[in-house]
Amino acid sequence: MIWKTLLGLAATLAYIFPALGAPSSGLGLASRSTDKYVFAHFMVGIVENYQLADWKEDMIAAQSIGIDAFALNCASIDSYTPTQLALAYEAAEQVGFKVFISFDFAYWNNGDTAKITAYMQQYAGHPAQMQYRGGAVVSTFVGDSFNWDPVKQGTSHPIYPLPNLQDPAEASTVAAKSANGAFSWLAWPTDGGNSIIPGPMTTVWDDRFFHFLAGKTYMAPVSPWFATHFNSKNWVFICENLPTLRWEQMLSLQPDLVEIISWNDYGESHYIGPYSAHHSDDGSSQWAKDMPHDAWRELYKPYIAAYKSGAKTPTVEEDKLVYWYRPTPKGVVCTGDSLGAPNGISMLSDSIFVATMLTSPATLTVHSGNNAPVKITVPAGIVTSNVSMGVGAQSFTVTRDGKTILSGQGGLDVRDSCTHYNFNVYVGSISE
Ligand SMILES: *[C@@H]1O[C@H](CO)[C@@H](O)[C@H](O)[C@H]1NC(C)=O
Asked: Is residue 169 over pLDDT 90?
């Protein structure tokens, strides 16, 4: 739903970027590690039926990997937004977690100053409100031209707006100057609009944000995947090794803040939260149900800790591996799908991805379906390897000094037939 807006705007955002010098001002911030926070984007629009206990369950899971707050994505049209916001703030207060509102400007508009001010007035001083450098954090999806000055003036508690800028060059606009920094939504390989470009992801957009924000707060996006299959939007971004690559970029760039996209956006397949029992289904169950992503949280945890401490590499404390792969090779034609295959899939590689998390070097063996087993020597630390996808069962073994230290099967067999296209991934882990 949210990408509709971007699609339209992409065509009109025809900025020519000045050639930029070496990256980046971010490097100078590496030592400023005391106030680094990691947030996760939470779609309130699909939790109409959440109870306090559901919120707390999600928050405790997020907290356990080092996430500090949820960015609560709110549409203006949902009648249950006030109720769910109140529950979220209450749950966060109970578990010692933080939250802030992310106004989704696919639904809000520049005329909503009074309503937005009222929400900020209600929550800016709440004990569970995320505060950053003395102000209550507030963010957006799009909404680039919204002026935050009147909201600041109308809210008795200081606020710290970090709106999404679709283009970092907008940082010099009057609206963006009313904010304290910006959030980028460019978490996948894109040309800045919604065009699908080959991977891997680069930091070209982050570098532009650093440049144009010129020292103001940069909240960088981290996302593991993107695949969606609605009739209004039917495409993939080329993610592949993005679950680890993007964090490596964060450790090297050390942006002020990081927001993970997302906790529970099942529709775009980039959730890292559990497939929660009580969310409402917008149709995405077709590709997200029984496709767990929970193991990505295990993978993210050491990266989050490293990012917060200013470390350039994550610390691995026990041997483990996290794998992800799609349910079918990209060329398989699904028999019961009137929508057709998602755009962009020709750029994907039919691979099984394995992030080894090792205390010392070892040998990874992946046996993918009918392919011959592939052995890879992997170093200590977190490294993503990939092997060609074979139809059938997936098995993973790690040996060290002639001893098997990790061994297990993937939770899903790769199949050469399907009813509906599904370019989401099955994510699992194997530990000792
Ligand atoms: C590994 O993945 C990359 C893309 O991320 C791809 O170009 C390459 O062909 C893959 N190799 C195997 C053996 O799957």
From this structure: yes
- Contact (CB, 8 A) for 9 and 142: yes
3-state DSSP call for residue 244?
helix
Residue 426 burial (10 A CB sphere; 0-12, 13-18, 19+): buried
Both tokens of 83, joined, read: 């109720």
Structure tokens given for 210: 């650093």
How far apart are alpha carbons 17 and 12 in whole angstroms? Answer: 15
Residues of the chain with CATH 2.60.40: 320-431
Ligand 1 geometric centre to CA of 421 (Å): 21
238 lines ligand 1 (CB under 6 A): no
Burial class (CB in 10 A: 0-12, 13-18, 19+), 220: buried
Work out the mean pLDDT of the chain and round it to a whole number.
Answer: 93
3-state DSSP assignment of residue 212:
helix
State whether the beta carbon of 368 lies less than 6 angstroms from ligand 1: no
Residue nearest to atom 6 of ligand 1 (CA): 349
CA–CA distance, 125 with 156 (Å, rounded to integer): 9
In the chain, residues under CATH classification 3.20.20.80 are: 2-282
What's the CA gap between 305 and 321, in Å, rounded?
A: 18
Architecture of domain 2-282: Alpha-Beta Barrel (3.20)
Question: Is the pTM here over 0.90, yes or no?
Answer: yes
Distance CA 165, CA 205 (A): 11
Q: How far is the CA of 295 from the centre of ligand 1 (A)?
A: 21
pLDDT, one tens digit per residue, over 262-311 is 999 999 999 999 998 899 999 999 999 999 999 999 999 999 999 999 99
The architecture of the domain spanning 320-431 is: Sandwich (2.60)
**For 371-395, what is each residue's pLDDT tens digit?**
999 999 999 999 999 999 999 999 9
> Counting atoms of ligand 1 from 1, which one is nearest the CA of 389?
14
- DSSP letter at 46 equals G
pLDDT 10s digits, 184-230: 999 999 998 889 999 999 999 999 999 999 999 999 999 999 999 99
Ligand 1: which atom is nearest the Cα of residue 351?
Answer: 14
Res 193: pLDDT:
82
Place of tokens 């709106």: 163
